[in-house]
Write a structure and sequence with these properties.
The chain is an alpha/beta fold and about 450 residues long. It has three domains: about 55 residues; about 190 residues, 3-Layer(aba) Sandwich (Rossmann fold), CATH 3.40.50; about 150 residues, Response regulator (Rossmann fold). It contains 13 helices and 15 strands. Strands 7-6-8-9-10-14-15 form a seven-stranded mixed beta sheet, sandwiched between helices. It has a five-stranded parallel beta sheet with strand order 2-1-3-4-5, sandwiched between helices. Strands 11-12-13 form a three-stranded mixed beta sheet, with helices on one face. Strand 8, helix 9 and strand 9 form a beta-alpha-beta unit. Helix 3 runs parallel beside helix 11, helix 6 packs across helix 7 and helix 11 packs parallel to helix 13. The radius of gyration is 27 Å and the shape is elongated.
Length: about 450
């Protein structure tokens, strides 16, 4: 685009100079005009050569994008919507001409969980294949095992689902981003739900990892700040063979409500809670994004989950229409959590590469805040956003989740938490949401 504009400028300047020469009867003026014309042409040619050299200097003209998402492991139920979100975005980006005029090279990868070395193997393989950006992991704990390896190689790591507060100020060379809000916000929403529900006492039980520890601390802190009493704040080993002792401690405190912060091991934990009389039929239970599922509790006795409330990062706009698009793209989906965020993550990475003019990890990271906000013209499709960029203007990408503006740490500036309630063991629906500036840890 720039090259075409330069050539047009040369033609216009040349025509103007010829016109001036024809109208002049003074040979000195003619010589001066010719000299000016030659100087202008030389300067413009020099500018064109510099631009062409800059374009040639780009070592990565094709965007190579990897995913590191849970095909296996204790968050595997989140894998299908996340993969679907990425792949739907890729389909639309390539249909609109790709990035820098070429289709994206996509390398799919599994993250596993923290009990395996799958994430590290995935990262090693993708780095060897020249990725400039990796979308993932879903688990904050998994991300923390590979973030140094990714960012030290000048590659962007962008998670659609990490929420651990510890990641906000992690030293990442400015290359780590996420578009789900820190659990400082989700913890505040859980606490507010319990207080607003009239509950004066709350037990918190969470898996012992960065995600569980961060969300448990935020929930307990905000519940107590609002005047409630935390009867117990327990961290457990997710691989433990039994949760009998932990549940017995919860029961001893006689809480009116229990916040359960975990992944797939929540099923076993809830079974023990039911057995000891502190399950959903006995106290109000709150779940979170890591265990809010339509399939995990399907084998519980009928209506066990009815009335259970769960929170999950969402969007500031209604996601129903997008989830319908996602279901049409992958009819096998049963859960949709983090599918929209995965779609938006793919879009902003592609737009950042296009704006940077080079698919380089460091250049992409520098351009991400610009395409996600900073006062540009709003756009919501890849084709529209690229057209604005190609016209030389700034953009503000409005994703399917709403705005995706980042703060100075690569976190969402503003986040939304969806509040849901189960109507059966396999169905839940949104009963409210909270959108707020995301507090710093």
């Amino acid at each position: 685009m720039k090259r075409t504009m330069v050539l047009k400028t040369v033609a216009v300047l040349g025509a103007a100079s010829l016109a001036l020469a024809a109208c002049s009867s003074d040979s000195g003026d003619t010589e001066a005009t010719a000299t000016t014309e030659e100087a202008t042409a030389e300067a413009t040619a020099e500018e064109t050569m510099e631009e062409e050299a800059a374009a040639t200097d780009c070592a990565n003209p094709t965007l190579v994008l990897g995913t590191m998402l849970p095909a296996t492991g204790d968050l595997a139920f989140l894998g299908p919507p996340e993969f679907a979100g990425v792949e739907l975005a890729l389909e639309e980006i390539d249909a609109a001409g790709g990035v820098l005029g070429a289709p994206i090279t996509y390398i799919e990868g599994d993250s596993g969980d923290t009990t395996t070395d799958i994430a590290s193997q995935t990262v090693d393989s993708q780095l060897a294949q020249g990725v400039q950006a990796i979308i993932g992991a879903a688990s904050s704990g998994v991300s923390l095992t590979v973030i140094d390896k990714i960012t030290s190689n000048g590659v962007v790591q962008f998670s659609p689902a990490n929420t651990a507060p510890a990641l906000t100020t992690y030293p990442d060379n400015g290359l780590y981003f996420r578009n789900s809000p820190s659990d400082v916000l989700q913890g505040a929403v859980i606490a507010a739900q319990a207080i607003d529900g009239g509950f004066e006492s709350l037990a918190v039980i969470a898996r012992q990892d960065p995600y569980g520890e961060g969300l448990a601390a935020a929930t307990a802190k905000d519940f107590e700040a609002a005047g409630g009493t935390v009867t117990s704040n327990i961290l457990y080993d997710p691989a433990a063979p039994s949760f009998e002792a932990e549940v017995a401690e919860i029961k001893t405190g006689a809480p009116q409500a229990v916040a359960v912060i975990g992944f797939e091991e929540t099923v076993k934990l809830m079974q023990e809670m039911i057995k000891q009389g502190v399950g959903p039929q006995d106290v109000q239970v709150y779940l979170v994004d890591g265990n809010l599922s339509t399939t995990a509790f399907e084998n519980f006795p009928a209506d066990t989950m009815t009335g259970v409330v769960g929170t999950v990062p969402s969007g500031s706009v209604d996601l129903s229409a997008f989830n319908d698009r996602l279901l049409a793209f992958d009819p096998a989906l049963t859960d949709f959590s983090y599918g929209p965020q995965s779609y938006d993550a793919t879009m902003v990475i592609a737009l950042a590469a296009h704006k940077a003019g080079c698919a380089d990890g460091v250049a992409i990271a520098a351009a991400l805040p610009d395409v996600a906000g900073n006062g540009g013209e709003e756009c919501s499709t890849y084709a529209d956003c690229v057209a604005i960029l190609d016209a030389g203007n700034d953009i503000d990408y409005m994703g399917v989740t709403g705005g995706v503006d980042f703060n100075e740490y690569g976190d969402l500036l503003e986040g939304t938490i969806s509040i849901n309630e189960y109507s059966s063991n396999t169905e839940f629906s949104e009963i409210g949401s909270v959108t707020s500036i995301v507090p710093l840890p």
